[in-house]
Amino acid sequence: MRVLFKTSYDQDIDHLVDPGERIRVGLVIAAALAAPLFVSSYFLSELSIFICYALAGIGLMVLLGFTGQVSFGHAAFLGIGAYAQAALLTHGVPFVISLPLAGLISGAVGAALGRAVSKMHGFYLAVATLAFAIVTESVIGAAEPITGGHMGLQVPAISFFGFELTENWQVYYLYLAVLLFIIWGTANLMRAPAGRSMIAVRDSETSARSLGIDVARIKVRAFFVSAAITGVAGGLMAHLLFYLSPETFSLLESLRLMLMVVVGGLGTISGAIFGAIFVSFLPNVIDLVRAFLPSALADQAGLEYLLFGAIIALFIMFEPLGIYGRWRKLRLFIETYPYYRRATFVRQKRYLKSERFR
Amino acid sequence: MKRQLLGLFAALSLSTTPLLAETQGVTDTSVKLGSHTDLSGPLAIGGAPATLAAQIRFAAANAAGGVHGRTIELIVEDTQYQVPLAVRATNKLVQNDKVFAIFHSVGTQQGLATIPIADKAGVPYIFPLTAAASMAEPLHPLHFSYFVTYANQASGAIRYFHEKEKFASLCMQTHSTEYGEENRRGMEAVAKELGIEVKLVGTHKPTDTEFAGAATAIKNAGCEFVYLGTTIKDTIALYATLRKLGYEGTIASNMLPFLPVVPQAAGGAMEGLQVVTPMGAVDWTSGPAERKAFYDEYMKQKGEEPSVYALYGWVAADLTIKALENAGKDLTVESFTKGIEQIQGYQDPFGGPTISFGPDKHFGWDKLQLYAINGGKWELVEQDLKF
């Protein structure tokens, strides 16, 4: 392991402690900024979709990775954000106000859900969030005056003070700015007392409570932040979909988000980004897998559900830290060669028996 | 001087527009079409055979030297019937592959989401594999559908049976989706026109499988005629339940349940179901040589008889070839859409009704056919059904 020589207390709260990491993140941001110079317009639109998924992944990461609350219905917040954005723009609200508002609306619904499920754990929480997603789909379908019901809703174009964004690179830069802002905000949140108490709740509710943390309130707050970020992602995604219908934000989409954070690596912002990269390539991966399966199975409808489930299960069994965890291990292996120890990544904390009674 | 400069500018800006508008996807030797369809999702039963049949038709045209010396290339993207994937696929086709037109794409919502992308690039959206009215309504110079809309299928069926049976009331059961809304719109228009009382309009979700409640409500409403704006599985379940409950009136539906599997479904309980459809059952042993040639080629590649979706795919491809022929040597978007509008009284080799387009007519098929299940088989009842 590298020894960091600290000369100031401020270093304790640095976002990126490791100088190598600072360079890597800087390079990634520079590459992202320079992308429109090198890649085609089509690839930029793909990158914009990737950014939406990365944002949604960060949203779910706050809930699942940082606070330890599972949500099987996160696509509902994507849908609420998208519909809020489209409806607000249709009613003449300018983009700079409608996008934060879409996030806030989604966050408020999230907080309400969080209040309702703040005493639930495990299966019950999973079922409750799943039910919420199904109900949301029906409500969107029924709320015809706002959402256009099942006839769907056309999404107006993005415009800034009368200037319409028509080119893909303009949209891409806007989305990138939002993504960087949210990443920065989330990183800040996680080093603030609010974020620290979320992590405390994830690791052990009993010890969090004994430290004076109001567990239920923290959960409501986590639901709010998570839903708000996912809502913003939905608002951005709406502009790429052009047309919204209630079925777009289905169970499959929720599963995709879940897959993203689990495969990417729970508990880190980088994990959400890695997961989004994985999900973006997933259709190609599925095509590849399909080629190896017997045709009776490969032509079966609903193969995605099976594959999504299988990938989630395999990652939880064999690499709970996800792709990002694998990358960290690889890096450490190279850095410390030949002194790498597997035990470095084994979780030290052992639960007391009493803690298992929630 | 200033005025001259302005004039020069105006002339330049005018002259650059046609230069920029050099038609994408067209060279002297080829024309590129793109299709986003469902090859592996829930609607692969329709998307896969339609795509294969279209490819067979294009391959035949290419083997004969192409259209005006241009070979037709079809790029197919699988969307698994998911809207986000359809958007990505269309972005790729329009911006990366630079296709000339989006051809025969599957799905209504997928269409609604992707048509703006095609519109922005000025790419025609032609002959999608859905009969939704929104595919070519309101009239748009780049949108063409060859189907009769679901709304018109509903009104056609109701009009026909009203003339025959003179019923005074009807019930409808349909989806709580945009597809259901369209069925309802068609039904309400014709019911108002003919003075038929609408006793009940029931809706269910496309995924529902249990219809005892819906069927009981229809039976108790006491209507003389029932129109089902449903798809495949729910049509079977609803029809069987209604007959089991002892409902005696006529029950009709649109083209969606018109599949070879439906007459034998539910253990013979499907007897008497009436459907309106543009494309009928085909007798492969007779008819023009083209029909047999297609049958043989399809059997060779797929190993099964061409389904009705394969016919849709073949006709879409054939119409496109006709339009390319009409467009002439100088192929632009404008000459191509003009070429579609010139198609009049087109007759496919499978015995379907004629197809005509025009500047104000962007829905192709002129008539419908009526089929009924009789003795476990589809039987042609009426070949010339107006809507």
Task: Explain what you see.
The complex is a heterodimer of chains A (358) and B (387). Chain A is mainly α and 358 residues long. Helix content of chain A is 70%, strand content 2%. Chain A has 15 helices and 4 strands. Chain A has helices at residues 19-38, 41-66, 75-90, 95-117, 122-142, 144-147, 168-191, 193-203, 205-210, 215-241, 251-264, 269-292, 295-298, 303-318, 322-336; strands at residues 153-154, 159-160, 163-164, 243-244. The longest helix of chain A has 27 residues, at 215-241. Chain B is 42% helix and 17% strand. Chain B has a 7-stranded mixed sheet with strand order 7-6-8-9-10-11-12, with helices on both faces. In chain B, α2 links the parallel β1 (30-37) and β2 (71-78). In chain B, α2 (44-63) packs across α10 (308-327). Chain B is globular, with a radius of gyration of 23 Å. Residues 5-21 of chain B have low confidence and may be disordered. Classes of the chains: A mainly alpha (358), B alpha/beta (387). Chain A binds chain B through residues 40-43, 45-46, 49, 141, 149-152, 154, 166, 168, 237, 240-243, 245, 247-248, 252-253, 283, 287, 290, 298-299, 301-304, and chain B through 40-42, 44, 78, 80, 82-85, 87-88, 91-92, 95-96, 109, 112-114, 116-117, 120, 175-178, 180-181.
